[in-house]
Each structure stands twice: as C-alpha cells, then as structure tokens.
Amino acid sequence: MPKSNKRDRLVQVATDLFQRQGYENVSLNDVARESSVLQGNIYYYFKTKRLLAIAVLKTWENQLVTALTALEEKHNPRERIIAFLEFANSMGEMYTAWGCPIANLSHALLSEPGENLDPAPCVYQVHLTWLKRQFEAIGYPAKEAELQSQQLLSELQGGIHLAHVMGYRELLETLLVRYCEQIRAL
C-alpha cells in the first residue's frame, strides 16, 4: 500500500473509531490494527494520538469546505442555509447515536492538560464564516449576520447534543424544521 494510502486509511479508521468508541478509548495500536498497518509503522505517520486526531479534524475541515462550496450552486442564500440544515437533519440518526463528531473530538482534545487546540475552532470557523456570508447575502448587516450565524450553529450543536444525550432524534428534527421555516420567512 502506498504511503499516502496508509496515512489516509489511518485517518479514515481513526475517524470511525473516535466517533464510535470515543477518543479516550482508542489507542494508536487500535487504529493500526483496524487499518491493517503494522503497529510500529503508525508512528511514521503520527507520533501521537493527538496528531492523528488533528489530522481527522483537518480532514473534516476540508470535507466541510468542499460541501459548503457545493452549496454555493444554489442561487438563493436562504436555499443554501436550508440545504445546510437539511444535511444536518439527514445526519440525525448518527448524531443521535454518537453526537457530533467535531464536538466530541474537540472536547476530548481540549480536555488534555497543557495542550493547545487549533484545528477544532477552525472547523467551526468554516461553518460560521460561511453562514455569516449567507446571512449577509440575505441582507443582514455584518454584525447581525455574525450573531445570526453564531446563534444558528449554537442551536444546532445544542440540538445535536440533546438528541444524543436523550436518545431522541425527533428533538433535533423538530429544531431543524423550525429553523428552516424561520429561514424561509426571512
């Protein structure tokens, strides 16, 4: 297997394991075993589990940028925000089962003593910057657009968390349907 494929496979497997088992419960050896990479070889790609987690977050950030760029094909900013919310709703079953993978991994990394966390805020900043642009395109002044984007993302994350903790997917679905109605009314 070429080097880049091994690294990509390690990140892909880590993504799945971190989500299903929690960052704290996964070792580099677990990731190596599930990836069919010799345990000693994982250290060639990732010296620490933290560096592997950061690679997972960077991968999510890149995927998010790609997905949000694809939403730009929708001509109306309201339609773009609604498509964003509908995508979140389509992930409702996964969110209910395991929570938000970005939030979970970010929280785990922030909990590590003495470590600085750069990538997780970057993933959230991609969301916030994109949403702010959409609200500005609707006609909100910059400061209000920023507040709207923060509120939407905060409520979305809160809804995901409650759906997960309570095991109640409909809670998230109801929130997202309500938000879509509010966006249509803008």
Automatic annotation (TrEMBL):
The keyword Transcription applies. The lineage of its organism: Bacteria, Bacillati, Cyanobacteriota, Cyanophyceae, Leptolyngbyales. This is TetR/AcrR family transcriptional regulator. Residues 4-64 form the HTH tetR-type domain. Pfam families: TetR_N. The keyword Isomerase does not apply. Keywords: DNA-binding, Transcription, Transcription regulation. PROSITE patterns: HTH_TETR_2. InterPro entries: Homeodomain-like_sf, HTH_TetR, Tet_transcr_reg_TetR-rel_C_sf.
